[in-house]
Design a protein that fits this description.
Structural class: mainly alpha
Shape: globular
Protein name: Transporter
Keywords: Membrane, Transmembrane, Transmembrane helix
Order of helices and strands: HHHHHHHHEEHHHHHHHHHHHHHH
Radius of gyration: 23 Å
Largest sheet: 2 strands, antiparallel
Helix content: over 70%
Pfam family, one: TctA
Number of strands: 2
């Protein structure tokens, strides 16, 4: 009952007019940015971080949650209307959604995607309401060994599931860890990796790094792309309603997809993308209309969209209760907290109850706003695809530079932003995943601090760390994962060597 009373206080705070306007602005901006192909949730949050400066903490966080939900739905619009996924989690929606659009059922596909997103997102917020507070209470008992072990295991899992080459992902993770150690060592007072540059003495600001890698890097990538004329399917308001048969066929996939996404969201990794593929495979296997798959099966839109939103919502549970981001988008959302001096974690529930419960209440409201706003204005949002990138991206770059400067009023940060913008651009063009780098940069200081504190508590005996129940389990799982990665790498090398023809002796 106490949590229910706190939730009601959260609703009272989030229903203030300026907070409602912040949620509306967040959903609108998130959807507009999410429509642009390739930017995705991480890039959207990175690009829109600067607009929160000067806001009250709760108002800013409400806007960020709106951006979070809006960007998720924005990717579905491009997938269905123009066959271009706005983000990785929208790839599966594109398979059936675009085929429905070709058959003249684009409105129904968009409506089912929005309804599925709303239902699964709401279920996710209910999960946050009931799971995050008790988990935070348990986490209060965690010591430095537990935080170090969980952060290390999460980083290993995230790196292993980031997609592409595992070796490249590990390299990006190590670079991120090194970036996190730049600056003064709080134990010895010595500056590390400063290279005589005064600005590096205080370390590299994580927010500036992600704004450069994801924000400015995306701007450069979009400018360098060749833009062709985009043909967008026109949607009439009367065509936005699915018929009775489509609605009936979508109900169970929405709930099954929501359950899959809820489970996946509590596991470190790109849960949104993985859950959509799992939901699509399940619905295809359970379907009695196999002949429709690949030609516009409504279940292939309803299930994956629900899975994506449920996974994204449940990813907030470890972020709010443990302070650990289990995905790249959660890490970017964490930077929004950090801008306003808020550190998510076990103490957030007890020290900032109005902020915590106000944010959760705003998620209910933001989900509803996303549904109400997106359906009638889907044609307007889709028209953003026709805007020339050479006009749109310079404006975005100007906002990004302004935000990086206002963060610390430092010209040095503008140089850091520019450096990481070009670094993110070149890495992206070379096929490297940027998520491990960002997560390594954030978790690096936490890993180092946790390890040092653990060594002090155990008098330098690392084996004591391995014998603690929770920390030991997490670390042994990490060791097993490293062993599996090494075994897989050696096996690939042996296969390559055995497949090469051996030259005959002459």
């Amino acid at each position: 009952m106490e949590n229910f009373a706190l939730l009601m206080q959260g609703f009272q705070a989030s229903l203030a007019l300026h907070n409602i306007l912040a949620a509306l602005a967040g959903v609108t901006l998130g959807t507009l940015a999410g429509v642009l192909p390739g930017i995705g949730i991480s890039g959207t949050i990175a690009l829109l971080l600067p607009i929160s400066f000067g806001m009250e903490p709760l108002t800013a966080l409400i806007m960020f949650s709106g951006i979070y939900y809006g960007a998720m739905y924005g990717g579905s619009i491009t997938s269905i209307l123009v066959n271009v996924p706005g983000e990785g989690a929208s790839v599966v929606t594109m398979i059936e959604g675009y085929q429905m659009a070709r058959r003249g059922r684009a409105g129904a596909a968009l409506a089912i995607a929005a309804i599925g997103s709303f239902v699964a997102g709401t279920l996710g917020v209910v999960g946050i309401t009931f799971i995050a507070p008790p988990l935070a209470q348990v986490a209060i008992a965690f010591g430095p060994p537990e935080y170090f072990a969980i952060a290390a295991l999460g980083l290993l899992v995230l790196t292993n599931l980031s997609g592409g080459s595992a070796l490249r992902a590990v390299l990006m993770m190590l670079i991120g860890l090194m970036l996190g150690t730049v600056g003064m060592d709080y134990m010895t007072g010595l500056v590390r990796f400063g290279f005589g540059v005064d600005g590096l003495g205080d370390g590299l600001d994580f927010i500036v790094i992600v704004m450069g890698v994801f924000g400015l890097g995306e701007v450069l990538a979009r400018i360098c792309e060749r833009q062709n004329d985009v043909r967008v399917t026109k949607i009439k308001f009367k065509d936005l309603y699915p018929n009775r048969e489509e609605t009936r066929r979508s109900i169970l996939p929405i709930f099954r997809g929501g359950l899959i996404g809820a489970i996946m969201g509590l596991i470190p990794g790109p849960s949104g993308t993985i859950s959509t593929f799992a939901s699509y495979a399940l619905e295809k296997k359970l379907s009695t209309r196999r002949e429709e798959w690949g030609k516009g099966a409504i279940e292939g839109v309803a299930g994956p969209e629900a899975a994506n939103n449920a996974a994204s919502s449940f990813t907030m549970i470890p972020l709010l209760s443990l302070g650990l981001p289990f995905s790249a988008s959660a890490a970017l959302l964490l930077s929004g907290f950090m801008i306003h001096g808020i550190q998510p974690g076990p103490m957030l529930v007890s020290t900032e109850p109005v902020l915590f419960w106000g944010l959760i209440a705003s998620m209910y409201i933001g989900n509803l706003i996303c549904l109400i706003l997106n359906l009638p204005l889907v044609g307007l949002f889709a028209s953003v695809l026709r805007a020339p990138m050479r006009y749109l991206m310079p404006v975005v770059a100007l906002v990004t530079f302004t935000g990086a400067y206002v963060l610390n009023y430092s010209l040095f940060d503008l140089g850091v932003l520019t450096f990481f913008g070009f670094l993110g651009f070149f890495l992206q063009m070379s096929g490297y995943s940027l998520a491990p780098l960002a997560l390594g940069a954030f978790l690096g200081p936490q890993l180092e601090q946790g390890l040092i504190q653990t060594m002090v508590l155990t008098d330098g005996n690392i084996w004591t760390l391995m014998t603690r129940p929770l920390a030991g389990t997490a670390l042994w799982l990490g060791v097993a994962m490293i062993g599996w990665m090494i075994f897989r790498f050696i096996r690939q090398l042996l296969r390559r060597s055995s497949s090469q023809p051996v030259a005959e002796d002459v």
